[in-house]
Amino acid sequence: RDIVRGVEGIIAMSLKQMEI
Predict the structure, then answer these.
(1) For residue range 1-20, what is the model confidence (pLDDT) as tens digits?
(2) Considering the entire predicted model, what is its pTM?
(3) Using CA atoms, how far apart are residues 3 and 16, in angstroms rounded to an integer?
(4) C-alpha separations of 2 from 9, 10, 12, 15 in Å
(5) Alpha-carbon span 12 to 5, nearest angstrom
């Protein structure tokens, strides 16, 4: 389940970058 958490973190970072 750690992999899912990592993917969620990457998605969050991508969304933050797009927001900027």
Answers:
(1) 678 889 999 999 999 998 66
(2) 0.30
(3) 20
(4) 11, 13, 15, 20
(5) 11
Q: In whole angstroms, what is the distance from residue 14 CA to residue 20 CA?
A: 10
d(CA 20, CA 18): 5
The per-residue DSSP string of the chain comes to -HHHHHHHHHHHHHHHHHH-
- Alpha-carbon gap, residue 15 to 12, rounded angstroms: 5
- Name the residue with tokens 């927001």: 19
